[in-house]
Amino acid sequence: MKDNQTIARSFSRPVSGDALKRPPCQVACPIHTDAQRYIQKVAEGKPAEALAIIRETNPLPQSIGRICAHPCEDACRRGDVDEPIAICNLKRVASDGARAAGLGYEPPGTEFTTGKKVAIIGSGPSGLGAAHDLALLGVEPVIYESQPEAGGFLRTGILNYRLPKDILDEDIGYIRGMGVEIRTGAAVGRDIDFDELAAEYDAVLIAVGLSESRSLPIPGVDLPQVLLAVPFLEAVNAGREVPELGEDIIVIGGGNVAIDVARSARRVTGGKVTMVCLEADYEMPAHSWEIEDAVAEGIRIVCSQGPNAVVGDDRVEGLQVKKCEAVFDGQGRFAPRFCETELSVIPGDTVIIAIGQMSNLSFLTKAGPDVNERGILIFDREQCTTTRRGVFASGEVVTGPGTAVSALASGKRAAIAVARYLGVRVDFPQEPRPVGELPASIGDKVRKAPRRRTPARPADDRTGDFGEIELGLPEVDARCEASRCLLCAGGARYSQLKCISCLTCVRVCPYGAPWADGDGLGGISPEHCQACGICFTQCPVKAIDLEAVSEAGMEGEIDAALGEASALEFGCWYSQSRVEPEAPLVQLPCTGRLSVRLLLHAFEAGADKVYVAVCSEDDDGHFIHGHRQTRAAVAEAQKAIAEAGLEPDAIELRVEPELKCRPKV
Amino acid sequence: MSGGVNLKQILDAGGFAVTGELGPPRNADPQVIIDKANILKGHVDAVNITDNQTAIVRMASAAAAKICLDQGLEPVMQMTCRDRNRLAMQADILGAAALGISNLLCLTGDHQSFGNHPEAVGVFDLDSVTLIRMARDMRDGPVFQNGDEIAGATPQLFIGAAANPYADPFPYRALRLAKKVEAGVDFVQTQIIFNVDKFKEFMHQCRELGVTEGCRILAGVAPLKSAGMAKYMKNRVAGMDVPDAVVERMAAAEDAQDEGIQVCVDVINEVKEIEGVAGVHIMAVEWEAAVPEIVRRAHLK
Amino acid sequence: MITAERKNFDEIRRMTDAHRHVLVVGCNTCVAVSLSGGEKEAEQLAAQLRIARRRDGIEGSVKTVTVLRQCENEYLDSISAQVGQADVVLSTACGIGPQGLAVRYPGKRVAPAMNTNMIGYVKEHHVWTEYCVSCGFCVIGFTGGVCPVARCAKTLLNGPCGGSQNGRCEISPDVPCAWQEIYDRLAALGDLDTLARILGPKKWNVSNSGGPRTMKKEGFKP
């Protein structure tokens, strides 16, 4: 029987529905990476721990940390205060920092306990993600890759300046290290028959992506200087010379691939590059930051123009375009409308078509699986199944064009689907619900702090080669950036059953998160809660704990940190200097989160000296009133230990000697 | 006989003391006291002046004691904790001492619900034990209860207390009396004794605890007026122990009053022989006339 | 709410040091609301005792358990296992706590960790003030919603004494004169004529002065 329990606990009642709410970044992430947790570890200066958290959901942490479209940042509630957290950059900081520390790159040992084998066709993010998760589930995956090297579009379509090959190699190496076999240069349909594959393996996963560029049905596309995006990028990525490439290049398309093509062409030729797209500038499907980077590199973008014909008799001399009046119809469907009379010619000696891709399913046989009238695999999104038993599909081949992380998510889901099919007892994860919008009253209270920019090579320097553009956030900047995180939904979790509606939390919360009416405490709004922990320290019946830092977790940390040492320092996650460098450190979001109980626990755990760090003499620490609470807790605990016969100054409050940032409050 | 010395002198000298009881009137007539005092005078060494006895309002005990003293009968002023806080009690002690009253019997007091003002607040700021200690400190400190020195004349008190061998829990009774001794009591008057055997056991315990060395114990006695009174006391009065034999004896008597006096005398004769009994306290309330006869028959004077 | 304050630590130790196994029992109702004896405080006290006893080489254990209300036998029943292992049970409830435990567990030593002080009104966070002394006969209907029994230092029923000055009681400038408040409220309500009536003397026999009280309710009994 546990020491601390109330009989109240012996009755169980459902907890508040709010408890299921998750941070919007995590919800927005297709693979639901717990960004908040790893950001916190980055803030603490523990990149290896951060990487471990990333790896819980992300089998390609380094690659995704560089190229992710980061929907998490679009959802980030810090954006309602000033700017979103640079989550993607912090992911890279985690993996770079862990590598520098020599940690976090040892793949976990896997055992294919099921005895089942799965063939995965394609080694792009979807195939790799599926293979990684299947390996963890005890199913042996074998990847078939038609290209000489693994990685799929990450290798062939994304250029070195965004994703260096050695980084991708490391991610793939990690997955190989888990026992995943990748057979490169092995094209299904050419080197191996699909039906044989299906017969040899317990299941097959088709994750071939969209490997073929679409062309345009316009006059002149047959000229030799008219190229397609995919082969062009493949050649550039492989370092091969691209035949017929001139010096005045027109790229057709407004998506991310078109941008990559344009920026690559700029690097290969050093010449003039013009992008032509149907969309108005604000409609372009490419990410805004990609467009900005392209423009910075001297690429001209011609918007609202549709290709009408490639001009030239033997050689390309330009592209005739017509005015595009609208790209989408009233329902938002792609249905471009042109002004056929408003024609002009953009001069150029090469045209590269980057208007989209399609899959190559030529390897399929009569035995199926079936495709629909548009040539697309018939597919069940929930179960990831095709029309042929034992054949599954994932990634862009079934989802259509998307981001790498979406393909990864699709592959991970397929892994579960396949594993379930093979008898592994595993459930599809529940979709988390996001915490609601940040109330304006809270946004106003949070101190503004600009997002830390990742240093990048200047445009005029970087277009001469394919070297990586972004250089990664320096550690201090990364920790400051991480400290901007609002810990959405990471705050108070209260037990309705234990709560006695004493109103203490209502009275002490600096953010007005707890609310009450005549019937008692109504709840603690996760939207308002900033996870400062003051309510936790004050609740007289322990009805409140913190999602991000539970009391039990803290006690465990104290025990673990203290070990055989006799002194302990409590510091802030975000502190960058120590008040007592010799003592082991236990970190919290702010020492305002420190309760008297935890301070006493340190002494019970064997400490004879406890240092408590605050980042300033102010009342506020990382949170409003944080230090006021720290001082109150220290004073109360000092009195308590003095009564118990210890010297009161066995608990010492000290101000951090060096502070680089203190953004929240 | 001079106030406050007679009782003390007798007890200090190891003599056998006799005290009586005098209830002040429920009016402002001094003559009642004068009359009663004159009945008792010469038959007892001192007389208790009750303090709102049984929580019924009567003339102040200090005033009645002064009237009694003026009649040449040494009073023992009773003081209960029910009606006064420590300020009033100290004031009354000083006042009484100034009037020449030195014998102070410290009592907790009957609960106000028994009396004629049941709605009154019960003060009980102190209890009998702390009252004894306060009185002792006023005399020996000399200090007030708060520790402040009493400058000038200090009250020369002879401090008494009550003890009831028949209340529960019996094993605690002698211990409780020992506490009173520790608090500074000089003499003790007990509850009315009819069950002599139990009193003997009580006295045995008192001797074991050294109580009899720390204070003088006067055994409480009273004359029964009738068999009805005997039954009433047996059945209705808390803390009374009237053996069936006594009730039967009263019922069998032709002259109940005479028999009552004789029962009382028999008890006196028995308790006189108990080691540590230093006197008797005769409680003949509203029957003061019986006292001279009891004293005579018991050969006390 | 009933308010209580934790006793001096040395006093608590004097009641517990002689005993090997101490069980601190918290109470999650009144004293939890008044932030003095709920689960948190009980655990804090237990931790303090453990630190102190370890320092002084006292062997044994100090454990803690909290019930919703120590004034109910059913709740006390639920901790019989923990109480059984203890040599002394230290209650952080109001004065009922140790007594309830003593009734429920006749063979067990009990001790109070608290001094119970009042039925308090929460003036502000961490500040309680005495508004009721459970006197058994409420007069607030005649005194403008202000209790002179609890809030007048002399429990006067018929207006302020001569010590009322500038709205303050003669005992301390920190104590408001209840009768000034009564007067002000009744004046504002236009009910000053209420004050002409002589109230009392008060029936103290329905208060604790009349002896320990028992309340019984008519109605269904299982």
Give the arrangement of secondary structure elements.
The complex is a heterotrimer of chains A (665), B (301) and C (222).
Chain A: E1 21-22, H1 24-28, H2 35-43, H3 47-57, H4 61-67, H5 71-75, H6 87-100, E2 117-121, H7 125-136, E3 140-144, H8 153-156, H9 165-177, E4 181-183, H10 194-200, E5 203-206, E6 212-213, E7 226-228, H11 229-238, E8 248-252, H12 256-269, E9 272-276, H13 288-296, E10 300-302, E11 305-311, E12 318-328, E13 334-347, E14 350-353, E15 357-358, E16 391-393, H14 396-399, H15 404-421, E17 433-434, H16 440-445, H17 459-462, H18 475-482, E18 492-494, H19 504-508, E19 514-517, E20 520-524, H20 534-538, E21 544-546, H21 551-562, E22 567-572, E23 585-588, H22 596-604, E24 609-614, H23 626-643, E25 651-655
Parallel strand pairs in A: 1-17, 2-3, 2-5, 3-4, 5-16, 7-14, 8-9, 8-14, 9-10, 22-23, 22-24, 24-25
Antiparallel strand pairs in A: 6-15, 11-12, 12-13, 18-21, 19-20
Helix pairs in contact in A: 2-3, 2-6, 2-18, 3-6, 4-6, 6-18, 7-15, 11-12, 22-23
Chain B: H1 6-12, E1 17-22, H2 31-40, E2 46-49, H3 61-70, E3 75-80, H4 86-98, E4 103-107, H5 128-140, E5 158-163, H6 170-183, E6 187-192, H7 196-208, H8 211-214, E7 216-221, H9 227-236, H10 244-252, H11 256-272, E8 277-282, H12 290-297
Parallel strand pairs in B: 1-2, 1-8, 2-3, 3-4, 4-5, 5-6, 6-7, 7-8
Helix pairs in contact in B: 4-5, 5-6, 6-7, 9-10, 10-11, 11-12
Chain C: E1 2-6, H1 9-16, E2 21-27, H2 30-33, H3 39-55, E3 61-67, H4 73-77, H5 80-84, E4 88-91, H6 96-104, E5 109-112, E6 114-124, E7 127-132, H7 148-151, E8 168-169, E9 172-176, H8 178-189
Parallel strand pairs in C: 2-3, 2-4, 4-5
Antiparallel strand pairs in C: 1-6, 6-7, 8-9
For this entry, give a set of tags.
heterotrimer, B: 301 residues, alpha/beta, TIM Barrel, eight-stranded parallel beta barrel, 8 strands, C: 222 residues, Rossmann fold, 2 domains, four-stranded parallel beta sheet, elongated
